[in-house]
Design brief:
- The protein has 580 residues and is an alpha+beta fold.
- The protein has one domain: FAD/NAD(P)-binding domain.
- Helices cover 25% and strands 22% of the residues.
- It contains 13 helices and 30 strands.
- The strands form 10 sheets. Strands 1, 2, 14, 15, 16, 17 and 30 form a 7-stranded mixed sheet that branches. Strands 10, 20, 21, 22, 25, 28 and 29 form a 7-stranded antiparallel sheet that branches. Strands 3-6 form a two-stranded antiparallel sheet.
- The longest helix is centred in the N-terminal third of the chain and has 20 residues, at 2-21.
- The chain is globular, with a radius of gyration of 23 Å.
- The protein binds flavin-adenine dinucleotide (FAD).
- Residues 52-58, 76-79, 126-130, 133-135, 137-141, 143, 266-267, 300-303, 305, 309, 513-514, 546-547, 557-560, 562 line the site of flavin-adenine dinucleotide.
Amino acid sequence: DIEDDLDYYEQFIRENLVAEASYVPPATYRGFQLNDENAPPIDFGVYDFIIAGGGTAGSLLARRLSEVQSWNVLVIEAGGRGNNFTDIPAVNMGSWSSDYNWAFNSTPQRMECPATASPFRQMSLPRGRAIGGSSVINGNVFSRGSQSDYDRWGARGLPNWSYENVLPFFKKYENASRLKGIDPEVHGFDGPFIVENYHNTSELSETFIQSMISLGYNLVDYNGRNVIGIGHVQKSTRNGRRNSGDNAFIRPIDNRRNLRLQINSLATKVLLEGNRATGVEFINRNRRYVARARFEVILSSGAYQSAQLLMLSGIGPSSELSRHNIPVQLELPVGRNYIDHFSFGVSCTTNLTAKNLTVREALAQYLRGVGPLTISTGTETVAFCNTSYTPVEYVTMVTKTISLVNDSLTFGTQRTTDFTAYLMLLHPKSIGSIQLKSRDPLQYPLLNPNYLQHEDDLAALVEASQLLVKIYENDQFKKYNLSIVRDSSCSSFPFNSDDYWRCVIRCTGYPGNHPCGTCRMGVSPNDSVVNERLVVHGMRNLRVADAGIIPVSLTGHMFATAYMIGEKAAHLIKEDHGIL
Ligand SMILES: Cc1cc2nc3c(=O)[nH]c(=O)nc-3n(C[C@H](O)[C@H](O)[C@H](O)COP(=O)(O)OP(=O)(O)OC[C@H]3O[C@@H](n4cnc5c(N)ncnc54)[C@H](O)[C@@H]3O)c2cc1C
């Protein structure tokens, strides 16, 4: 009965919002403390493959490896499974205040802003913690990057990762049969991962498209070969519901007997014998276990935590390991090439007075697979433009946030004031690093993305902001009496001057949440961690397969590429073990 379903969802969202309000984010890997530090590890048995981290890349990798019936595969995942709340795309920011988010923070980032006393800001760095990983809490924007990105990987001595050699792996997992306006030659139609458009693009986002077209940009399939231009969002939902790595790849094979999901279990160390990985130590319910790998250990713990795990296991920069008295097994630049996108938003008011839906009306639409709850943070269009420095992305959003007011659920923002374009720097020249805080595996790593420390990064975003003003001030928007919201912290600078935008970006900018490069793939162990088969340089039986291996950033988002990496890793492993 639809009314029962609506009652259930209203109540369930209410409960989650109440829990969110009192949620205290962790500062360590809380919940995993050992009952007895001195107790010997419990034997967890022998598996052909052990995957540490069942996230975005890890979930697809686990599915593909366990297709080989004679192999048994263990996934050690620190989180649990998503639920009906995390499956609603529009509440993804709600799940950031829950145990589905690791809730890391950056080290203080230099961001001078006239409105704040300190020139430093610590920034939240959310990461998913569940089977499916960050795909359980992310923004659902399916965006692969451009042909030129992968050809740059190829040109770095990684020919196997040039566009023509990664395209089959993007296509293999995808089912794009519901997408409109795409280049069919570069999409897959038989894979388990459904991608959809948004059915209810707002008049303002459509106008944004028209404005960009009149400025010379094309309407494009931004997952095609050339991403420059603007397109309607392609999103990771199935009938409007979040299509996480868990929902798309693991739940349909939950009864596969050769795949064991060991959830709520934190991997703390890779066991090494000489240059061979032999197993993984992990903590579950405050007890230590050891699982042994007959063939391989694969780290898919994400860009932050695969780097941390390698360092805890003695693989990393010797200066860093020695500082924490960790015996150096192998000197490699783990954590050294940390790159992240950086973003900020520019909002406008208009004269539109569209009727707001009630949450219940929106829920009724959600259950039919349409409406505002089927998109995260209201993302409607995605555009990529070049600047003189680096490409920048423009995403338009009509945000609808559900909040609790006097115990009733309401949308938190008004339609007329919430049209925002977000700008994202895609190829930053600022490079950060990941370090250990301690040799204690229960401490979070130190994450320093080093945002905006290269002057070209700020300059690119300033140029992009001035292009955005042109888009907003174009004739198409005139009838809406559009007005760009000025940032009061930066009112001492003339609007639209370089100084004004520099100020706005530093005062309001935030992480792109697309970290990569920390276990970079490359030819030489001097500047990379894994080779083109994703094997850790100088090691046998140990690979990394997650966004951390991405050698240079993308003109796009990350999860589509993380899946491609999981897909390709499975192929490489099958080849190396004579299965293909
Ligand atoms: C808030 C947010 C919004 C985003 N929006 C988008 C978007 O719209 N589009 C897009 O393309 N990308 C987006 N991204 C980025 C994208 O989701 C990630 O870059 C991508 O999913 C990373 O995949 P991964 O496999 O490398 O890591 P993850 O998916 O993060 O997986 C790592 C997994 O390992 C587990 N793990 C970590 N350490 C351990 C350990 N020691 N032991 C056991 N398990 C462990 C984690 O719990 C997690 O499940 C977003 C990310 C965030 C956080």
